[in-house]
User: Fold this.
Amino acid sequence: MLSAFEHTSVLLEESIEALNIQPSGVYIDGTDGGGGHSFEIASRLRGGRLIALDRDPEAIEAAGRRLAQFKCVTIVQTNFSQMKSVLSDLGIAAADGILLDLGASSHQFDTPERGFSYQSDALLDMRMSKQGMTAAELVNSAPFEELARIFREYGEERFAARIASLIVRQREQKPIETTFELSELIKRAIPAAARRQGPHPARRVFQALRIAVNGELDELGALLDDALGLLNEHGRLAVITFHSLEDRMVKQRFVQWARGCTCPPDFPVCVCGKTPQAAILYKRGIEAPEEEQQQNPRSRSARLRAVEKQAAPQPPDTRVRLGRAAYAFFAVRS
Assistant:
């Protein structure tokens, strides 16, 4: 029997405000979790529609119960990277808003048997979808070089090589099967002075393994590739991140979309014809208020970023005029 799916929605009011919900609009919650954000979106719709996605079967079951009162909601078990395909299957051309609440849910962390947390002893699993390779299988099969890369790149762990080396030596004697076994190995690999500073010594490695097992950064990159094409003009994309790797990906993509002309600074007129695809709504992103951070410590690392899709580029005849002016400029320079 499944335990009750409990998930505290982070930056709830702020993310709903960022979406600028229109009652008749179409919205997508790409990480439905316990349905907290979805509930707030659906309750604001009058003739609109909400598509709620999640890869976790337990989240889907919980969302089905919580959102049952709303006839405007369609729930689909899939990864948000498949959003384009889902909309096509549903006959939806584009949405007015997309929300992503990245990372693992409170339920996944707080359910020991899911194997996400170093604070409870359980089989080392970490699969959000409950399908595919487990964290234990990855730890016991990946070569030293791959483990060190995962810990270094996805966990930003400075002792990545030492930890990977100890794991490889240990698994030659006995497979590493539980969260506590791995956590103790990590503690042994990290120098005592470093263990006394900062967060729990296993935190970065567990984050890295979770990202690798679930392909989180690859899935996020795939969604960002599609995102603007899935939005109507003036539609909004709001993303809540929880660590620097995903936040950096989102920030860089938003900046790229918001950048217009790429001509050299000394050009008197634009010849590239590029216009901003989106406008950044919050320059530095939004952090959870102090009160929320005190009530929900997991919100301390959260950051909300949002963009609004801009109107189509200027008409062709304007670009032609710019091109002629640029031609004259180049003729003078030559």
